[in-house]
Amino acid sequence: MLEAGFNSVSNFLSELFTSLLSLVKVVLRARHRTRLPPRQRPVCSVLGNGPSLNESLTDHLDFIRQTEVVCVNNFAHADVFLELRPQNYVISDPNYFVFTEQTTDRDDIRRTLAIFLERVNWPMTLYVPHFAKNSYLLGLIEQGNPQIKVVYFNYTVVSGFRWLAYWLYANGFGMPRAQTVIIAALTLMVNRRFETIYLFGADTSWHEQIRLNDQNQLLIKQIHFYDKPKDVTHQPVYMDAHRQRTFSMSAQFLSLHKAFLGYEVLRDYANYRGVTILNASAKSYIDAFERVSVKKPVSQ
């Protein structure tokens, strides 16, 4: 009884502290409040870049086409990007926003930029965190392609009392911790009030590709649906820009914990907003959302 009472008080004080900290961050960044465009259709599909997306695109492309489509990060590298002509694109990888004309080691970013400037000839909304504003890449996109409308979202991580966090999420003053770009994309689409959000290509199976070499360096083979598997090898996962130290095994699994916990937070928030998130990925370790098998095109 005494232990339960102590835990209750401890939890309350912890939530009070994190709520106050969240409010301080929100006040400092209130001018960056997210303002989202209205949805175009009642249903959307968020496409992750996991290897299983190839199977989903083969089996369910007609279904996906009839929804409002959301792509992320380097999806533009796939030929199907020009075929799908997605209405929405979310980039949260911070490497995009420190990229400059002098950057020599990110050919993937250079390729995405070229596709955006030269191949996107349909209206597309690009969602990026507010700290990306005035970056080299966003300057080129905003000046170079009028078809792409840039929406800056407020990536202030908010936690604490659930009622307070939900109000701040809903009003564009903060978000759950977006450990993956999929969490950011889903949060944005929940706030656009889609009736149903289908999730494809969210394998979240990085742990299957973790290795440790003889020098105790953590290696991961990151395979995307647009990659040729034979061209992808295990690479060190560095924790600093100077590439002196790789992440420890404990830090890597803590990162995975934050990702899966983020999906649980998002599931509860979506329920609060009356939005249904369904995981239609052919393969996925995400257990927060109901798993479904798409069998026929969605009716509009």
Question: What can you see in these coordinates?
Answer:
With 300 residues, this protein is α/β, with parallel strands linked by helices. The chain has a domain of 186 residues. Helix content is 37%, strand content 15%. The protein has 8 helices and 11 strands. The strands form 2 sheets. Strands 5-4-3-2-1-6-10-11 form an 8-stranded parallel β-sheet, sandwiched between helices. A 3-stranded antiparallel β-sheet has the order 7-8-9, with no helix packed on it. β3, α4 and β4 form a beta-alpha-beta unit. α7 packs parallel to α8. It is globular and about 65 Å long.
Distance between the termini: 55 Å
Q: Using the CA coordinates, give the radius of gyration.
A: 20 Å
Biggest sheet strand line-up? 5-4-3-2-1-6-10-11
SS strand fraction = 5-15%
SSE class = alpha/beta
Mean pLDDT: 91
Given as residue ranges, the uncertain stretches (5+ residues, pLDDT < 50) are none
Shape verdict: globular
Percent of residues in helices comes to: 25-40%
Topology pattern, helix = H, strand = E: HEHEHEHEHEHHEEEEHEE
Helix count, DSSP H or I runs of 4 or more residues = 8
User: What's the count of strands?
Assistant: 11
Specify the biggest β-sheet.
8 strands, parallel
Question: Which terms summarize this structure?
Answer:
DUF115 domain-containing protein, 300 residues, 3-stranded antiparallel sheet, single chain, globular, 37% helix, 8-stranded parallel sheet, 8 helices
Break the fold down into its secondary structure elements and pairings.
Elements: H1 2-28, E1 43-47, H2 53-65, E2 68-72, H3 80-84, E3 88-90, H4 107-118, E4 124-129, H5 136-144, E5 148-153, H6 162-170, H7 181-191, E6 196-200, E7 210-212, E8 218-220, E9 235-236, H8 249-273, E10 276-279, E11 290-291
Parallel strand pairs: 1-2, 1-6, 2-3, 3-4, 4-5, 6-10, 10-11
Antiparallel strand pairs: 7-8, 8-9
Helix pairs in contact: 7-8
